[in-house]
Amino acid sequence: MRTPIIAGNWKMNMNPEQTAEFVKAVKNDLPETTKVEAVIAAPAVDLPALLENAKGSNLKVAAENCYFEDAGAFTGETSPKVLKEMGVDYVVIGHSERRDYFHETDEEINKKAHAIFRNGLLPIICCGESLETREANKAEEWVERQVTAALKDLSAAQVSSLVIAYEPIWAIGTGKTASADQAEEICGVVRKTVAKLYDETVAEKVRIQYGGSVKPANVKELMAKENIDGGLVGGASLVPESYLQLVNFNK
Ligand SMILES: O=C[C@H](O)COP(=O)(O)O
């Protein structure tokens, strides 16, 4: 049985004071971590406030990015080693915004995945096609290629424990959600890709999120799909009431 995982991805929208207020507002109404994992991915500058206020609660903490080296002369980068020391649980990598605006390559994303595991953290690896790719009927091969590249040289045990987020770029922040069937179809492709690269046992364990305009109104329908084990949520994760409705989708 895969434990559902709903992760808010705040992107560059919150400051430490807002972070503290948010956590205080949600911390007592979060689901048991064995029922649903509730995660917030926050900018590095907000992580201390997030970790401090989440102490003793069921909230898990993710960074929105990290570098693939542990330490050294890499001005402006965030060390995965330090994230682990701080108490972070997950790191989001390969988000389409990072691929598009910061030109992150598949190779760098794979190096980051290795660095995250090396430091005892877990990656949430994002993939997803543009509208152009979808309209050219190439979404499946695009996602298969991204997943294959991101998982290169990871062990079966590592892949069994990580999270893959399928986020069609055309559905991010647009209010245009992929239909539950469209989301399920490509999440199924992600699982098949893992089965092809590893085996069915690994594919059965890997958790796959859908992301792209997920909100309280559509979360149940998405989560009812066989291959969708969670959501990576932007806009709707910024407001405590809506975040709580998302993580408590099965109540
Ligand atoms: O990481 C989250 C996604 O980019 C989705 O963002 P959104 O829920 O605002 O569409």
From TrEMBL:
<dbReference type="InterPro" id="IPR035990">
    <property type="entry name" value="TIM_sf"/>
</dbReference>
<comment type="subunit">
    <text>Homodimer.</text>
</comment>
<comment type="function">
    <text>Involved in the gluconeogenesis. Catalyzes stereospecifically the conversion of dihydroxyacetone phosphate (DHAP) to D-glyceraldehyde-3-phosphate (G3P).</text>
</comment>
<keyword id="KW-0312">Gluconeogenesis</keyword>
<dbReference type="InterPro" id="IPR000652">
    <property type="entry name" value="Triosephosphate_isomerase"/>
</dbReference>
<feature type="binding site">
    <location>
        <begin position="234"/>
        <end position="235"/>
    </location>
    <ligand>
        <name>substrate</name>
    </ligand>
</feature>
<dbReference type="InterPro" id="IPR020861">
    <property type="entry name" value="Triosephosphate_isomerase_AS"/>
</dbReference>
<feature type="active site" description="Proton acceptor">
    <location>
        <position position="167"/>
    </location>
</feature>
<dbReference type="GO" id="GO:0006096">
    <property type="term" value="P:glycolytic process"/>
</dbReference>
<dbReference type="Pfam" id="PF00121">
    <property type="entry name" value="TIM"/>
</dbReference>
<dbReference type="InterPro" id="IPR022896">
    <property type="entry name" value="TrioseP_Isoase_bac/euk"/>
</dbReference>
<keyword id="KW-0413">Isomerase</keyword>
<dbReference type="GO" id="GO:0005829">
    <property type="term" value="C:cytosol"/>
</dbReference>
<dbReference type="GO" id="GO:0006094">
    <property type="term" value="P:gluconeogenesis"/>
</dbReference>
<dbReference type="GO" id="GO:0004807">
    <property type="term" value="F:triose-phosphate isomerase activity"/>
</dbReference>
<keyword id="KW-0324">Glycolysis</keyword>
<dbReference type="InterPro" id="IPR013785">
    <property type="entry name" value="Aldolase_TIM"/>
</dbReference>
<dbReference type="GO" id="GO:0019563">
    <property type="term" value="P:glycerol catabolic process"/>
</dbReference>
<feature type="active site" description="Electrophile">
    <location>
        <position position="95"/>
    </location>
</feature>
<comment type="pathway">
    <text>Carbohydrate degradation; glycolysis; D-glyceraldehyde 3-phosphate from glycerone phosphate: step 1/1.</text>
</comment>
<comment type="pathway">
    <text>Carbohydrate biosynthesis; gluconeogenesis.</text>
</comment>
<feature type="binding site">
    <location>
        <position position="213"/>
    </location>
    <ligand>
        <name>substrate</name>
    </ligand>
</feature>
<keyword id="KW-0963">Cytoplasm</keyword>
<dbReference type="GO" id="GO:0046166">
    <property type="term" value="P:glyceraldehyde-3-phosphate biosynthetic process"/>
</dbReference>
<feature type="binding site">
    <location>
        <position position="173"/>
    </location>
    <ligand>
        <name>substrate</name>
    </ligand>
</feature>
<feature type="binding site">
    <location>
        <begin position="9"/>
        <end position="11"/>
    </location>
    <ligand>
        <name>substrate</name>
    </ligand>
</feature>
<comment type="similarity">
    <text>Belongs to the triosephosphate isomerase family.</text>
</comment>
<protein>
    <recommendedName>
        <fullName>Triosephosphate isomerase</fullName>
        <ecNumber>5.3.1.1</ecNumber>
    </recommendedName>
</protein>
